[in-house]
Amino acid sequence: QVQLVESGGGLVQAGGSLRLSCAASGRFRSITVMAWYRQTPGKQRELVAGINSDGRANYADSVKGRFTISRDNPKNTVYLQMNSLEPEDTAVYYCYAHSLYGLDSSRETWGQGTQVTVSS
After folding, report:
1. Are residues 5 and 23 in contact, defined by beta-carbon separation less than 8 angstroms?
2. Rounded distance, CA 86 to CA 83, Å?
3. What phi and psi, each to the nearest 5 degrees, are found at residue 7?
């Protein structure tokens, strides 16, 4: 099993910044991809940013230039630095991890979600 513990959400004014963290623990051989998704009521969960073990990252167009994803592999932790926040960024943010275990098995794990609210 893999557990993801998120932190760093909260309330911020438009133009402000927040930093989300997500630490993975449990039984796994390695974590290939870590990512952040977000979801608002009535909408599908959408990818915000993802990063692989080599540090290559990709971003949703809506956050490019404002958000930065990074990871600390020895700590199995991923971060999302969010700058120039907009009310449209308000959502529950979920951490995601794709991990390997055993000889050739993999699993996907989701965090419990952390609320980010941006006031105008």
Report:
1. yes
2. 9
3. -155, 165
33, 83, 60, 39: CA torsion to nearest 10:
80
Counting every residue written for the chain, the total comes to 120
Q: Spell out the long-range contacts of 73-79 with Cβ–Cβ below 8 A and sequence spacing 24 or more.
A: 73/31, 75/23, 76/23, 76/24, 76/25, 76/31, 77/21, 77/22, 77/23, 77/24, 78/21, 78/22, 78/34, 78/35, 78/36, 78/51, 79/19, 79/20, 79/21, 79/22
The set of long-range contacts for 62-69, using a CB threshold of 8 Å and a minimum separation of 24, is: 62/88, 63/89, 69/35, 69/36
- The upper half-sphere exposure of residue 99, i.e. CA atoms within 13 Å in the direction of its Cβ, equals 23
pLDDT along the chain (120 residues), means of 10: 95 98 96 98 97 97 98 97 98 98 94 97
Amino acid 80: pLDDT = 98
